[in-house]
Amino acid sequence: MTSARASIGNTRNPETHAAILDAAEALLAEHGYAGVSMEAVARRAGAGKPTLYRWWPSKAALLMEVYERQKSLALAELEPGACAQDDLTEFVTSMIRFWRETPAGQAFRSIVAEAQAEPAALRLLRDEMLARGRANAAAIIHRAAETGEIAPHPDAEAMMDMIFGAAWYRLLTHRLRGTAEEMPRIVAAAFAAARPGGPLALPG
Questions:
Q1: Distance of alpha carbon 12 from alpha carbon 71, whole angstroms
Q2: Domains of the chain: which residue ranges?
Q3: pTM, full prediction
Q4: Residue 175: CB partners within 8 Å, gap ≥ 6?
Q5: Which part of the chain engages DNA, per the record (predicted)?
Q6: Any idea what the Cα angle at residue 109 is, between residues 103 and 113, rounded to 5°?
Q7: Tell me, what's the pLDDT at 2?
Q8: Is residue 191 packed enough to be buried (19+ CB in 10 Å), middle (13-18) or exposed (0-12)?
Q9: Backbone dihedral region of 9: left (phi > 0), alpha (psi from -120 to 50 degrees) or beta?
């Protein structure tokens, strides 16, 4: 049996931290969300179970970090182009492909469901994970305003609600197949609404 790796209280030892994420990722790929437990992750990583619970309050919180790590790698190759609308379309469709085609993406629906009953996991989901995604999208929208693709003062929050609301609706109702192909039309509608004179173009 692998001896337990060292940890120092709430300070995350980088080697142990990486081993735990690797173990959780491997178990997720092998067994799916339901087949992952904190006990199994600790055993696979050679870490103490108390260490996992000091660093992550629940399985959902741990797998959120696995999800974020995999998603960051999947989206790392996206580069800004000449057209902000195209960039936001590619960002959203890449996210949908990630949901559809990777173990962490496929588990995300279960992570969201479990977070509804776990206040700490819900705060992590809402205030960190979703906030980062919206910040990335907002940066693209503001660039579109600066370059004249849309009005100078767009309602960026409403635009993101239109785009991400459509994506999340399909995620949570098991309708991801074909969604990536639908998103260019939805992003185009949000951009059209934010052009001068449109309902999402705010007064200066």
A1: 22
A2: 1-55, 78-193
A3: 0.84
A4: 169
A5: 37-56
A6: 135
A7: 44
A8: buried
A9: left
Asked if residues 120 and 69 have their Cβ atoms less than 8 Å apart, the reply is no
Q: What is 78-193's CATH number?
A: 1.10.357.10
Helices 84-101, 156-172: crossing angle, 10 deg rounding: 20
Q: How many Å separate Cα 24 from the centre of its chain?
A: 17
Phi, psi of 11 (to 5 degrees): -75, 125
Tokens at 185, concatenated = 């039309």
Per-10-residue mean pLDDT of the chain, 204 residues long, equals 46 89 96 94 95 92 93 86 96 93 91 89 89 93 97 98 95 88 95 98 90
Domains 1-55 and 78-193 belong to one CATH topology: no
Instruction: Report the pLDDT value the prediction gives residue 159, as an integer from 0 to 100.
Output: 98
Torsion angles phi and psi, residue 61, rounded to 5: -65, -40
Whole-angstrom Cα distance, residue 155 to residue 180?
24
